[in-house]
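Progress note, sequence design subtask.
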């Protein structure tokens, strides 16, 4: 039998490996490599975000007491912006932490109380890396709590409870990381409250999410596959936790886990039968969570997301002529922000994007006759319409009805985008209606001469009122993608004429003259560079 003492103050073995450059600082001079060191080698396809190095360098310069307490195998994914970074911070350094992340344009998110990531002493912080167009997720803990998934109420670990910090070096910056022994102690305490098996089973199978960490316990042949870990929390004395390695996998002893839970509760001052209360609260909150997730799938955008910016939701509109990459950038930005935030995408045009099924069906039928309707729209005399006969009159009425249908659809999309924002979503809008000029940039489409045609003037005035209401519902941020005609012609040959392209740029300049908050982005560069610039504008406006 092999026993490891994981109590505070116990002797610990070899430190964690370095990441990337090599050991850093005096603490790492005499360190040897761990068997799991290969998991910390940087991957060329996912380099460490420069903001991570800048952040931890600022922490060191300010003298913050902090450390990474997550599974070290996923540390590189966290530093590269592909996973969370679990940071344990000393309580007294919290004001300094907030000051540093605020200077680096950090943003905090909030969640409803029914979600599993909500507990005292834990916050989600996000730091942007404008050079990569991504953001870093800090899962910041002032005190690490354990308990049921939706009932983490027992503050077991704080910064002082970690027996030893080690470090890894990233671009010359030493980042404190939890030692393997302390990491294992945290993992077992968490697993003790998450483990479940039928009452008649003495051994509880360790799932894949825990097995890789717990399986790092030393194991000697000839001991019947039994490993024993001695855990001590508070004054209750050590608790031996037995783990059995067999052909079926790794299993933990039910009675040992029950004693460990009881010891943790007593350490936190809960001496009664709190196990039943924990299970009841956990079940209630999880039921609420599952019900909310079901409703979110059934009615997207109708409920607050799991994470939303602390300042509230946000509506962003991307505007530009054809060929500027609006749809491509809207898809990219939605994917980037949706990684951790509640993010939705809205389409306000009449092309291949999402829209009402009625409008899409009618558009398929009308598409072959679009040139005739456009020629009608270019008429500027009501007399020409009177001499053209009944056929042209029907076409004019169809054009007016079509324009009103599009106006109603756009109005519904605009109102829905703002409703989503009030619930905490970041809404990326491809296009946005304007009421300044007809026929361009998703503005009114009924020709001006139809205002004086009996029977159609009412539809024309209705369309104007809808676009005026849409103009009042301005997005929180409007981004104009601008370039020259050669870029549009290269990306979408023959899709738009130079005269129409210049007319759109002229209208955009007029819109910017009326609203000084509109920002321009050069769309002539590559997709990645444009995406990074758009990401920067959106993030700084959150």
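Output:
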């Amino acid at each position: 039998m092999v026993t490891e003492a994981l109590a505070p103050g116990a002797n610990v073995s070899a430190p964690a490996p370095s990441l990337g450059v090599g050991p850093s600082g005096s603490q790492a001079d005499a360190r040897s490599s761990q068997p799991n060191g290969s998991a910390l080698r940087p991957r060329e396809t996912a380099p460490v975000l420069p903001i991570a190095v800048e952040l931890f360098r600022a922490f060191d310069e300010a003298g913050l007491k902090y450390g990474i307490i997550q599974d070290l195998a996923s540390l590189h994914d966290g530093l590269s912006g592909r996973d969370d970074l679990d940071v344990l911070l000393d309580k007294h350094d919290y004001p300094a932490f907030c000051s540093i992340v605020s200077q680096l344009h950090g943003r905090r998110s909030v969640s409803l109380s029914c979600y599993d990531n909500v507990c005292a002493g834990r916050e989600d912080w996000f730091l942007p890396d404008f050079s990569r167009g991504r953001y870093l997720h800090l899962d910041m803990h002032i005190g690490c709590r354990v308990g049921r998934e939706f009932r983490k109420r027992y503050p077991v670990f704080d910064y002082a409870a970690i027996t030893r910090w080690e470090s890894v070096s990233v671009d010359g910056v030493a980042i404190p990381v939890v030692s393997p022994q302390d990491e294992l102690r945290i993992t077992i305490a968490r697993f003790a409250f998450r483990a479940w098996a039928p009452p008649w089973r003495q051994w509880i199978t360790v799932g894949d999410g825990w097995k890789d960490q717990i399986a790092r316990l030393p194991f000697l042949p000839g001991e019947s596959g039994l490993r024993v870990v001695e855990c001590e929390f508070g004054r209750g004395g050590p608790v031996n936790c037995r783990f059995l390695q067999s052909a079926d996998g790794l299993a933990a002893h039910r009675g040992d886990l029950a004693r460990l839970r009881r010891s943790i509760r007593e350490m936190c001052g809960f001496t009664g039968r709190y196990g039943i209360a924990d299970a009841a609260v956990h079940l209630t909150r999880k039921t609420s969570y599952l019900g909310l997730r079901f409703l979110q799938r059934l009615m997207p955008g109708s409920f607050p997301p799991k994470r939303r910016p602390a300042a509230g939701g946000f509506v962003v509109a991307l505007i530009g002529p054809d060929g500027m990459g609006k749809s491509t950038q809207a898809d990219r930005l939605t994917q980037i922000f949706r990684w951790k935030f509640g993010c939705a995408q809205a389409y306000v045009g009449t092309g291949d994007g999402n829209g009402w099924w009625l409008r899409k069906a009618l558009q398929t039928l009308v598409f072959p006759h679009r040139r005739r309707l456009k020629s009608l729209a270019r008429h500027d005399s009501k007399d020409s319409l009177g001499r053209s006969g009944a056929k042209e009159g029907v076409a004019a009425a169809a054009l007016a009805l079509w324009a009103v249908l599009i106006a109603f659809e756009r109005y519904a999309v605009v109102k829905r985008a703002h409703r989503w924002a009030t619930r905490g979503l970041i809404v990326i809008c491809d296009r946005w209606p304007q009421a300044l000029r007809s026929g361009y940039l998703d503005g009114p489409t009924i020709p001006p001469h139809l205002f004086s045609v009996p029977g159609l003037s009412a539809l024309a005035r209705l369309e104007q009122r809808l676009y005026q209401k849409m103009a009042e519902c301005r997005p929180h941020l409007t981004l104009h993608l601008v370039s020259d005609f050669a870029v549009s012609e290269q990306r979408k040959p023959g899709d738009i004429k130079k005269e129409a392209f210049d007319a759109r740029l002229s209208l955009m300049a007029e819109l910017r003259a009326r609203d000084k908050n509109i920002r321009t982005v050069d769309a002539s560069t590559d997709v990645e560079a444009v995406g990074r610039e758009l990401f920067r504008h959106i993030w700084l406006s959150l």
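The two ends are 56 Å apart (CA to CA). Work on this subtask will continue into the next period as scheduled.
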